[in-house]
Here is the input.
Amino acid sequence: MISSIELFSGAGGLALGLCEAGFEHQALLERNKDSCDTIVANISLGFPGIQNWKVLRTDVRLVDYSNYASDIQVVSGGPPCQPFSLGGKHKAHADNRDMFPEAVRAIRELRPQGFIFENVKGLIRKSFSSYFNYILLQLTYPEIVIREDSNWTEHLSLLEKHHTSGKSAGLEYNVVFRLLNAADYGVPQNRHRVVIVGFRSDLDVNWSFPAPTHSKEALMYSKLVDGSYWKDHEIAAKNRPEVTELEREKVIRLFRKQEFNERWRTVRDAVKGLPDPQNHAASEYINHEFRSGARPYAGHSGSSMDEPSKTIKAGVHGVPGGENMLALDDGSLRYYTVRESARIQTFPDNYFFCGSWTESMRQIGNAVPVRLAHIIGKSIAAKLKAGQI
Here is the structure.
């Protein structure tokens, strides 16, 4: 097992995926009460593999890491994304919710073998490029601490000088990042997130991000050429979208040039087997209650059944729920149920969410897809175990 601590654990998406990959969490740190309640409730309900989790409701700025064992191998977490989110105020370092400095402090004090951090794609937008570089350099050299009489740009200059000097004394990490689309890894959702991974430089670990397992092109082929997608869902030919010979030939030519993985998973794949939430049978599934009032508005039209879902959001963008709507086959719209959203984020059906629809959607929208966390975590664990570190 890989000994780990998770910061900003939320409702447990990243933690669950890493647990499945062989990580043993010594502590999960989270400030939000409802998120903590969700994890604690699942522990109480006997959700497998998490019975030894220690959930601490706390502000990470108050945590004393000397209270933890010195053999923590990995630190993970998703620092709050609001300072960088496309839907937020874009304040970055000027936003007091920027918790990357606390992520760096955890690395400095725990000295883990590696770390995994996830954030929104807005983190790498052009206007934040200098601050993103600052984050990476802090994670690379966590012992070079900002002085009290200094600002972040002065600290950045200091880090740049150290980095270009070639000096290697002190705690140092080899850091890589990549913008990933969860759909490329079998998550039924177009969800672009920045993942930052680092390994302590004295370990000589050579690692790269896992290759994608799923593709848009394979989904196109299954719908436009061999019809296997429609057959999987028992949809008769008369009820399928019309496909022109030109469209079919275009996809066939594309496949002659490339090899593809499994097809992207769609909303229809994700919700398969779930009853209509307005049906009495829906009560057999936890968190599968109907919510009325869904309507389209500019830029928010709901997700198609036969494509990966649009990004599940935290429920605070515009009209409550924002994009968290489903466009049904008859053309009507309704909100996703909490259970449907959880499936789209690849949470297991027996994982329970505490709180109202809005609060549960906030937890799910802020989570790392369990499957994506599992794939990345498994790759990291294999490297650490192979080196018998």
